[in-house]
Each structure stands twice: as C-alpha cells, then as structure tokens.
Amino acid sequence: MQIDLHKPILDKNDSLAADLRKQFAEKHVYVVDLLASPGSGKTSTILATIDALRDEFNIAVIEGDIASSVDAEKIKAQGIPAVQINTGGACHLESAMLKRAIDVLDLERLDLIIVENVGNLVCPTDFDLGENAKVMILSVPEGDDKPLKYPGVFQVSDAVILNKVDTMPVFDFDREAFETSVRELNPKAPIFPIAATKGDGVEEWASWLADRVREA
Amino acid sequence: MQIDLHKPILDKNDSLAADLRKQFAEKHVYVVDLLASPGSGKTSTILATIDALRDEFNIAVIEGDIASSVDAEKIKAQGIPAVQINTGGACHLESAMLKRAIDVLDLERLDLIIVENVGNLVCPTDFDLGENAKVMILSVPEGDDKPLKYPGVFQVSDAVILNKVDTMPVFDFDREAFETSVRELNPKAPIFPIAATKGDGVEEWASWLADRVREA
Question: What is this model's ipTM?
Fold first, then answer.
C-alpha cells in the first residue's frame, strides 16, 4: 500500500527537485539540507556555521518546521535572511515547499543556502529537494545505537555531524561503536564531532562545507 | 494531496484499531503507546517502568523500530516477553503491524502491554493503535521549545514524561517555559519529570499507570 501511494508523490517531487538543482547550479548557489531528530541542535549548528562562514559567503537559511517561527527569528537576529516554512503537520520538506521559499530569495546574491528540515530521522530521507548535499546531525544524548535503528538517514548523508560532544562525560556514549556502525552504513561520509553552542570542532565542518561552496 | 491520500489509510487503520481496542477491553489488558524522538530514553523508561510494576502485573513489550532488534533484546534480558516489529522504513506503527505482534502474545495472561513506537515526534501522532493511552517522552537535551515546534504530539498525549531531568544543569532548559507551553496545548495531561536510568521520579509515573492498569 505504501509503495503504491508514495511512488507518484516521489516522481512529482523528484522532477521539481531536478529543476531546483539546475537552477542552483546556474546561479552557483550551494544548498545543504540538514536532517536530524528534534532537539539535536540543528539551529545551533546553523548559527555556528554562519559565524564561521559569513565573512566569505552570502548565506541564507530556510527553516522547516511543523509550526512556529522561533528558529527563523534566531537566524534573522544574526542579520542573515531566513525564510520559515511551516509544513502544517507534514513530517518532512518536499521540493514544492522549498520552491516557494526559494522564490522569495535573491539567488544571484547568494553563495550558500542552509535548509533545516523538520526534526525527523525518518521521512526527510526519502525526499530530494534539489540540494547539493544532505548532512545529518546526531547529538550525543540520543545514543550511540542510532545508526542501527535509523540506518536510512546515515546511508543518504554526505557528512555526519556528531553534536553536543561536550556532554559525552554525562552520557554513556560509545564513540568507537558509533563510528563503526556509521562506517558499515556509509564508508565515505566524514564524521565531524562538534559542540555547536561552544564552537568546538566547528572549524573542520565549516572548512569541508566551504570547499564545496567555492566549487558551486 | 496529502489529505486525499491519507484519508483512506486512516479509515482502514482506525477500523482495525477499534477491533484491537475491543479485544484489549475483553481481555482486561491495558495498552500504553509511547511516543518520542530518537534517543529520548523510551527503552530506559520502559525498563524502569517494568522494574516498578513487575511484581503486581504481567507485562509484555512491543518494540517498533525501522530496523534492528536491540531494544527487544534489552527487554528480554529482563525476563519480560518482547515482540520486535521492524517497520522496514515506515516512520510510525499502524494498527495492522500491532495486530501481528498481538497475535503472538497470550492476552489472557497479560495485564499491561507497553508499545514503543518508532522514534518520531510527528507521524505516530496520527495513527490510532487501539491503545488505552498515548504517552509522550521528551528528554531535557531536546530543549524546552519542542511544544512550540511539535504541537500535535503534545495535544494527543494523555501524559507527558520529561526524561533525563538529571542533566538539566548541563542544558539550558527552562522548565517553567516548557510546562507553560505544554499547558497551553494540553491542560489535562500530567507531566512526570524522571531520570529513567537512575530511577528518579519513576514512582509517580508508575503509580499513575498502575491506577489505570487496575481499572482495565
């Protein structure tokens, strides 16, 4: 049942995503889609990334949430353009939602768009938004066993950010077991340990991202 | 589009859920469905609840995960029957999945079934499983703003467990703001602050649950 119903939605989504991808390439804008659980620190990671890259690049942020605009307000408070998408209940962003947000941004002026997907380790995995990379964030309090339980998101991600590493002493997180599980699902994606609210480790992640933005 | 497609799925799900609910009532089994983000401590909360209630009640656990059986193994290690449902990618449990798990349990012998839904604050909200109560867990590291961003799950929950309260000094969690937001969405649901891995606060939550199991 699910496969029959999903197929036409995905085809339509993917076709629009391909249009968006072409548009991003023509305008030399790099788009990164951040996937994570609720409360893993997506917005804090975006704020830290903006801090690291705002001198070199023109950045905009698209915030996907079921409701509220608290995240977009935090980004705007840093003087960075932010567009809030409220999905009205939907558990993931789709390319049609992204298109509406893109339409209000001036792509000519932008180098990098950071998309914060809805907090959900499952559904956003299946939806192409025309982005250049999907990057996932797992936070230490969520536990080292998450690759076993949510393999899909680890497989589709171009990089894995491990956030809140400063809280590792508080939680029983086995970093070696985590990295081994990630490697089995995704041998190529780099893993960036960071503490976004403190800025620790952000430089390495930001440098990986900057290399890609420069090539866009 | 979404409404048109969801409607028939929900009707079929809800009809089977109604059958399950009738079956649970006839057998005097109380069924609680736990909703939470990945890594909020669902399994630890279940283990602590089992510890508190196993002397009085016969308990079984149904574990919903996209992949793996690590949670069911942890429950079985405590000598409690556990059935693992692997959704194979689906982001929530449906009543048809629950029925297959129920079919292998001896309802005559059971007083309480604890269902651990897929880690997802969004999708499980919409699916009736025939349970007596939906209870959600939010963990302190996820942040006090989650009621604003994921209102649906707070609205449908009969009780709210706030887990990992022992880590409150590490995180910038405003408990008063959290409780105010919850109250606006759901004036009735009790909020139980606990630290599942340490057993703190579990007694009050377990007592609330025990009162309901006795009446089933």
Answer: 0.86
